[in-house]
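Q: Make up one entry.
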Amino acid sequence: MNLKSLLQTRTAGDPDDEAIVFTDLSPRTLSETLNAMKTPVSHETIRQWMNDQRLRLRKIRKVIPGGSSPDRDVQFVMIAELIDEYQAAGNPYFSIDTKAKEHLGKLYRAGRIRCSEPFQAFDHDFPSWADGVVIPHGIYDPVRNRGHINIGLSHDTSQFACDSLLWYWNRIGKQCYPNASSILLLCDCGGSNSANRYIFKHDLQILADTIGIEIRVAHYPAYCSKYNLIERRLFPHIGRACTGMLFDTVETVVDLMRKATTTTGLKTTVNVIRRFYETGRNATDEIKHNLKIVFDDLLPKWNYRAIPQHTTVIS
């Protein structure tokens, strides 16, 4: 009996993939098993051998798409062309998305930090034991390498997403882009900015009317949210800044998320939106009939513009 005979093999997913060698036994357990079979090997020797064979601790990788769209490549070309167009014109483009909802209070959160004693949390993660929720809506500016998080305390709705954009534009965006004639938003297909929901387009039109600037939207195709810039350039650093810490108060969450920085220059600002948002809003026939959204000829389901019909600028 040798060590290799105790290892298992399995494909990564596709039967045509190369087999992955793995074991769920620790070096110490493998050593004890071999010793019982009259083949004594120390666990340190096994550990070194496993390192040499690249048998390391690894996490499952979330890389298999849940589906595909026949228009995927065309939309990616469209997005790239829009980014070039907006950069050349000096107009802003923002990547937006909502990070997963978290509970407030003494509830456990994954991760480890260096501390003299561990923080203490409830022994069960019942949502009813939480003091509330935090819903981080993110806005990332790739040109300036700046991130912003608006923390909602209610529900992730299209109104919340548009209020988040309104707050950001009035407090930060228009100071950075005073001559902007149009804003490009890059976002996923689902969630509060769903591509197939009239209510988001209705709220977006109200936002364009309020700030008096055209808003152009380009959605990433379904199953392609990982390509949204905010998913790679802001949210991982937000997660790192908050890992292993209790979200005991809103103030704690704000302080933690503001620490999301990188050596390449990323800085993050944070605000709290305390408005209550009603769920279950749907577009009425009147809203659909009066919708002023201008859809592109190419892939209108993912590309459209909200052009100001009148201006009621709110500071």
Remarks:
- The mean pLDDT is 94.
